[in-house]
Design a protein that fits this description.
alpha+beta, Cytidine Deaminase, domain 2
Length: 119
């Protein structure tokens, strides 16, 4: 992973740690929205049943998220649970209009890239 990507992913991991003790049984997740090499928004999963990191970051980014890059330390969810799928929000935000989604997850639950067809 190029150096810039590593810094953004490290930031996502730092944000994820803020949820320690509050998200169980859910995992710790942080997300960073980057456009033009600059962080424009960030979020983390703060509590069980609350908005996921990706949704928090995208809400903060607003329209600026279109075409931006999303760095998240866990594959975005594609299932309905206590919250809607993060993938739906990512698509609605226009992240696939040239944006790069980087997930650091050695054992994904569902192949994220197989769930999204940007065309």
């Amino acid at each position: 992973m190029p150096e810039g990507h590593e810094a953004f992913m490290r930031r996502a991991l730092e944000l994820a740690e803020k949820g320690v003790g509050y998200t169980r049984p859910n995992p710790l997740v942080g997300a960073v929205v980057v456009k033009g090499g600059e962080v424009i928004a960030a979020g983390y999963h703060a509590r069980y049943g609350g908005p996921h990191a990706e949704v928090m970051a995208l809400e903060r980014a607003g329209e600026a998220a279109r075409g931006a890059d999303l760095y998240v330390n866990l594959e975005p969810c594609v299932h309905h649970g206590k919250t809607p799928p993060c993938v739906d929000r990512i698509i609605a935000a226009g992240m696939l209009a040239g944006g790069l989604i980087v997930a650091s997850n050695a054992e994904p639950v569902i192949g994220f890239s197989e769930q999204i067809d940007p065309s």
